Amino acid sequence: MEKEQTIRDWILNLPKRGKITFSLDEVDASFPQITENNKRVSLWRMVEAGKIQSVWKRFYVVIPVEYELKGTVPPVVYIDQLMTYLQREYYIGLLNAAAFHGASHQQTQELTVITDKGNYRDKHKNGVKINFVGKKSIPKTYIQQKTTKTGVINISNPELTAMDLIFYQYEIGGLSRAATVLNELAEELDFGKVKNDFFILFTSTIVQRLGYILDEILVYKEIAGTLREKALQAGLSFRKADLKPENDSTHASYNKQWKLVINEEIEIDE
Questions:
Q1: pTM of the full predicted structure?
Q2: The pLDDT of residue 122
Q3: In the 3-class helix/strand/coil scheme, how is the chain assigned residue by residue?
Q4: What is the residue range of 53's domain?
């Protein structure tokens, strides 16, 4: 007589089938004969044994061998599966995306996930933090897929990453931090390949601030020039704006090229 499969056996066999995440709904479907209480006890025991980790309500990850000692799995390992479970479009952005594109000094313990609905609170659990940032729509044309050991993840391409760094400057620590990251990211930027729809994603002031930083602070003149040319081709018109809207601009200088009042001193960390 064949031994009846236990919840533990079912979970431990998932990686053999190329799957390292599961939801409570899947457990319910696979073990309809087991009571809710017994399911909870089985899962609790596996969590206590360091075999699985609860990363979201009703959603778990099987801890790969390489993370068993630490007892926690980096969210980049399971984020694609989690967002599929939540039925949300997403991409990994800002400092995390910059690190993927070679800005090696921008490694961070937190994962920033930009999603099409921003009503999720940041998740801080087991020493792991996921920052959720809302965006009206996810520009799929400018998202790249990177292959990982456990599947694929979506990340913003270098050009979208650059614009996001300015747009979401407050999430990363301000324009000086954005400029520091852009200094490492610049070699990957090629605004010549973006299309007109790219400039629908942001207001003209974001382009102006990015262009000014690339042009005057980082002295990537050619990259800044291409950005300006493509923006104007797309029908963007630059209007006088402040580099930092909330700062006083009484005695600030004015940059004619980018039509910006320079009321913020930008410093780059070496």
A1: 0.91
A2: 65
A3: CCCCCCHHHHHHCHHHHCCCEEEHHHHHHHCCCCCHHHHHHHHHHHHHCCCEEEEECCEEEECCHHHHCCCCCCHHHCHHHHHHHCCCCEEECHHHHHHHCCCHHHCCCEEEEEECCCCCCCEEECCEEEEEEECCCCCHHHEEEEEECCEEEEEECHHHHHHHHHHCHHHHCCHHHHHHHHHHHHHHCCHHHCCHHHHHCCCHHHHHHHHHHHHHHCCCHHHHHHHHHHHHHCCCCCCCEECCCCCCCCCCEEECCCCEEECCCCCCCC
A4: 7-68
